[in-house]
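PROTEIN DESIGN WORKSHEET
SECTION A - STRUCTURE
LENGTH: 322
TOKENS:
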């Protein structure tokens, strides 16, 4: 009988412990203790606790929206594929930067290429630095990151500078400090936007270089600028030659022709086939590439390429043997 009384006491104690357990919420799971830390979504439970500000967190790529202020709209697909291959092997070395717009939504500030490449690599989440930024700060950070880290052409850089000045209300002095350039460099880029559209397109596409463009800027007449630009393209003029032509007045309007003066006959054009044949003969003779660049006035240039100082001395010895 004593054993029965002990069993009754034990059962009563267990029943009391169970009642305390139910009342305190123990055994109901973490959700019963941290109200609102999970939310039922279909059959799954999704964390709603946001990442702390100014920290790096692993964020699902589907929760990251594109930057509406992204200055670049075209990304080379081959380069993206190469970056995706690298990410598959090495992962994301540098986190992207985002701002939080909702409990589980983020907006990209910088790192568009890394985000796109991560999606190509099949990543479902990537490391991201979460920071606070308003719309103007987002535009400024996206433009500055683009200028500093992307292989932009001169026109894209100039347009980014212009947007920073006009949309972010920066002065040229402040802009130079933000992008790590002196004021004269910023000014030279901005002046490119005053060139005629044809020349800007040529500079953007690599038809001419920054040196050619700077020489053309010093010409005031747009028609004269376009005329000299076409000569640069057709005659493959060097930057030094263009600067000489500008100093000689190639960009100034031509003086009215004297109708009483006898007309000079134009220099006969050298057939292209003969030029190419002569170039091949000279190339074989010097052992280096030789180019002939005649003009319509009968003048021109002979260009002999060399790979080193020793190669130059070899060519000079052929021209002037001891």
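SECTION B - SEQUENCE
RESIDUE ASSIGNMENT:
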């Amino acid at each position: 009988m004593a054993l029965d009384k002990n069993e009754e006491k034990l059962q009563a104690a267990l029943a009391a412990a169970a009642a305390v357990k139910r009342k305190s919420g123990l055994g109901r799971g973490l959700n019963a203790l941290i109200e609102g830390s999970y939310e039922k979504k279909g059959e799954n439970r999704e964390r709603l606790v946001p990442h702390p500000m100014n920290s790096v967190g692993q964020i699902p790529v589907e929760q990251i929206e594109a930057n509406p202020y992204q200055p670049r709209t075209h990304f080379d697909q081959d380069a993206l594929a190469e970056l995706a291959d690298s990410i598959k092997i090495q992962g994301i070395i540098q986190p992207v930067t985002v701002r939080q717009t909702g409990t589980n939504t983020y907006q990209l500030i910088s790192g568009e290429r890394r985000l796109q490449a991560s999606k190509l690599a099949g990543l479902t989440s990537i490391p991201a630095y979460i920071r606070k930024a308003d719309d103007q700060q987002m535009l400024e950070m996206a433009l500055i990151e683009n200028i500093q880290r992307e292989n932009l052409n001169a026109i894209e850089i100039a347009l980014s500078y212009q947007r920073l000045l006009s949309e972010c209300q920066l002065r040229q002095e402040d802009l130079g400090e933000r992008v790590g350039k002196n004021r004269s460099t910023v000014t030279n880029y901005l002046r490119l936007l005053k060139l005629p559209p044809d020349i800007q397109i040529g500079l953007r596409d690599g038809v001419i270089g920054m040196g050619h463009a700077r020489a053309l800027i010093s010409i005031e007449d747009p028609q004269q600028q376009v005329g000299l630009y076409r000569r640069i393209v057709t005659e493959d003029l060097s930057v030094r030659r263009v600067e000489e032509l500008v100093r000689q007045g190639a960009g100034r309007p031509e003086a009215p022709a004297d109708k009483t003066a006898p007309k000079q006959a134009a220099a006969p054009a050298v057939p292209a086939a003969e030029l190419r044949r002569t170039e091949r003969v000279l190339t074989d003779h010097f052992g280096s590439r030789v180019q002939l660049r005649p003009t319509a006035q009968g003048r021109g240039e002979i260009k002999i390429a060399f790979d080193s100082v020793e190669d130059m001395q070899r060519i000079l010895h052929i021209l002037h043997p001891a």
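SECTION C - NOTES
The beta strands are 38-41, 44-47, 55-60, 64-65, 96-102, 105-110, 125-130, 290-294, 300-304.
The radius of gyration is 35 Å.
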